[in-house]
Amino acid sequence: MAEVVAIKPAVADGPVLASRDKGVLRLTLASPPANALSLATMAALQAEFDRVKADKSVRVIILAASGKVFCAGHDLKEMTAHRADADHGRAFFEETFAACASLMQTIVRHPKPVIAEVDGLATAAGLQLVASCDLAIASHEATFCTPGVNIGLFCSTPMVALSRNVSRKQAMEMLLTGETIDAATAKEFGLVNRIVPREYLNQVVNKYAQTIASKSSLVVKTGKEAFYAQAEMELADAYAYTGRVMVENMLARDAEEGIGAFIGKRKPEWADE
């Protein structure tokens, strides 16, 4: 049975729950109904991502949520309460958006692949969370939107992740209209990888996770890092960079083992080196 623990042990029902099973860490947003990205929730997620960076027993991370909403974005009630501060909330707003930016970048730069398991609404910073993950698997009931324009707060930070997943026209359509798109449209846009029936969502995500977990963690880490690095480069620079990456990868023990196993028609035994 997988071990289940609260990230903040002093809180029985913390904002995020963590469980492990066969090299896969599952992080579950556990503050329904909204599962909002309050400062406490973002701090809990950040702490867990940081904690397992060098943990060799964790090979893949799944990000899921409890309840009918995956994540409703920032906690607007929490933020609004700080308008009564002497600075009208400026310091708190800056802290909130800085924490969110740090969390999203941590996911992208994390050595472990991160899979979003989306069942329900992912809106604003919640959509940003999905878009920041390496893979996203959604149920047919999942929906997505960047509705900030409807309440006078344009989704400027969520659009960073959104615009790195979908085309400019599709991103601007979502950002300017604030309208909700269904899972099929999200897949068409390129925001999610697959759509599955709700009853099979967990099973499919776990299969993805276990498939990735069976690979060399060194090779997966190398590939993930190179993917995001080259995406920001000019074509010639990208080829020069990835060429160097492949040379180093070729010299790694796992490449020697993997190629030898392929030639010898046997299953490779990874050393993660």
TrEMBL record:
Signal peptide positions (record): none
Source organism superkingdom: Bacteria
GO molecular function per UniProt: enoyl-CoA hydratase activity
Protein keywords: Fatty acid metabolism, Lipid metabolism, Lyase, Transit peptide
Keyword RNA-binding among record annotations: no
Reported function: May play a role in fatty acid biosynthesis and insulin sensitivity.
Annotated NCBIfam families: PRK08139.1
Family (UniProt): Belongs to the enoyl-CoA hydratase/isomerase family.
Protein name per Swiss-Prot or TrEMBL: Enoyl-CoA hydratase domain-containing protein 3, mitochondrial
Organism: Mesorhizobium captivum
